[in-house]
Design a protein that fits this description.
By secondary structure, this protein is an alpha+beta fold. It has a single domain, classed as Glutaredoxin (3-Layer(aba) Sandwich). About 35% of the residues lie in helices and about 25% in strands. The protein contains three helices and four strands. Strands 2-1-3-4 form a four-stranded mixed β-sheet, sandwiched between helices. The longest helix is centred in the first third of the chain and has 14 residues.
Length: about 100
């Protein structure tokens, strides 16, 4: 089984695209292990994350802490990304063998 991927969803009240993103994540989550954290874009934490990720408007989506997009979430793009192999962590071991 693959490890769960972390999704951070930056949302705001009365946001149709935010509701759409939640539906897409629920649908994709049935096939891929996802841990979804929803954060209010108006909160201090939400504003900092949005600024750091370049999110211009809700919803903002971060995948494993990295900017994935904002606005209308594409189910196809998300599935394609989740189906691609994740890059292996780079080794920090600098010793020679």
């Amino acid at each position: 089984m693959t490890a769960a991927r972390e999704i951070t969803l930056l949302t705001q009240a009365d946001c149709t695209l935010c509701e759409h993103a939640k539906q897409v994540l629920a649908k994709v989550g049935a096939d891929h292990p996802l841990v979804v954290t929803e954060i209010d874009l108006g909160s201090e934490e939400g504003q900092k994350l949005a600024l750091d990720a370049g999110v211009l408007f809700a919803p903002g989506i971060l995948l494993d802490g990295q900017p994935f997009g904002y606005g209308r979430l594409s189910e196809r793009r998300l599935r394609r990304t989740l189906n691609s192999p994740t890059p292996a962590p780079r080794s920090t071991d600098r010793s020679s063998s």
